[in-house]
Fold this protein.
Amino acid sequence: MAKKTHVTTTINGEPVEFLCEPRQSLLEVLRDVLRLTGSKEGCNNGNCGACTVLVDGVPVDSCLVLGVEAEGAAITTIEGLACDAQLHPLQQCFLEGAALQCGICTPGFLMAAKALLDRDPHPSEHDIRFHLAGNLCRCTGYDKIIRAVQAAAEQVNEGVAR
């Protein structure tokens, strides 16, 4: 059995400490150790984006990041997107626009879109499609997802969101 490493990090604004094996992915730590199961395991090789989380504001496939690499980082998962029991405009627009079906890919799309809107509050359709190209959906189709991100961007720009 491999020796476990002590990791100190911040997850969804809260200081967190955990032990993980050197080979454990951040996704495994989030889901199996910390019980934050919102990030989904899709392909487990970085092709689908279902496990996307933000590490220091940058979207990453958590299946490709080691848990030990979270040391000192600020991680945001889908559980940290809503605030005070109020959905983030992205979540609300995905619901209202039926931009989800089975839901496996949805957390990854939401986190990638959050990173985009944080960086560019006025993205074009092309920007959205380009930025979400690392996230795959097998059942909903991309048009509803793109429209939901556009609607959320409008709300964010109107000051509805944080």
